C-alpha cells in the first residue's frame, strides 16, 4: 500500500521540519518512509516491534505549528519506543482516517 503524506515530522529522528513523504505499509507490518514513490526508504519502522500506539490530532496536546493549510483533524502520530514519534498530516480528514485505520489494523495483527 503506497500513501502520499502531505507533511511528515519526526521527533528524535533526522527530520526536523515538515516535509512531504511517501509511506509504504508492507505485508510484513513495516512502514517505509520514502522521499517519493520511486525512492528507496529513508527509514524503515517495524510497527509490530516499535510502535506503541497511534494518537489522533485531537489527542496530541503539544502539537507543533502545522504548515499552511494543515488541520488538526488531518494529523495523527505514531508513538514509538524510546520517546520517539512520527507526526503525519494528510490532505483531508478522510485520508487521515483511512491511513490511521490501516496502520491500526497492522498493529492489531501482532
TrEMBL record:
- SUPFAM superfamilies for the chain: PH domain-like (SSF50729)
Query: Which is a Gene Ontology cellular component entry for this protein?
Result: membrane
Q: Specify the superkingdom.
A: Eukaryota
State the Pfam families in the record: PH
Domain PH: residue ranges: 16-97
Where it sits in the cell: the answer is: Membrane
**InterPro entries per record:** PH-like_dom_sf (IPR011993), PH_domain (IPR001849), PLEKHB1/2 (IPR039680)
Give one GO biological process term. Answer: regulation of cell differentiation
> Keyword annotations for this protein?
Membrane
Report the main location listed first in the record: membrane
Q: Which PANTHER family match?
A: EXPRESSED PROTEIN, PH DOMAIN-CONTAINING PROTEIN
Q: What is this protein called?
A: PH domain-containing protein
Read off the lineage from the record.
Eukaryota, Metazoa, Chordata, Craniata, Vertebrata
Amino acid at each position: 500500500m503506497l500513501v502520499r503524506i502531505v507533511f511528515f515530522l519526526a521527533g528524535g529522528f533526522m527530520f526536523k521540519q515538515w516535509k512531504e513523504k511517501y509511506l509504504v505499509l508492507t505485508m510484513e507490518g513495516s512502514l517505509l518512509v520514502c522521499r517519493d514513490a520511486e525512492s528507496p526508504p529513508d527509514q524503515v519502522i517495524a510497527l509490530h516491534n516499535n510502535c506503541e500506539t497511534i494518537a489522533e490530532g485531537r489527542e496530541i496536546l503539544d502539537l507543533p505549528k502545522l504548515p499552511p493549510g494543515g488541520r488538526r483533524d488531518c494529523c495523527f502520530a505514531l508513538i514509538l519506543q524510546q520517546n520517539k514519534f512520527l507526526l503525519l498530516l494528510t490532505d483531508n480528514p478522510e485520508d487521515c482516517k483511512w491511513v490511521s485505520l490501516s496502520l491500526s489494523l497492522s498493529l492489531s495483527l501482532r
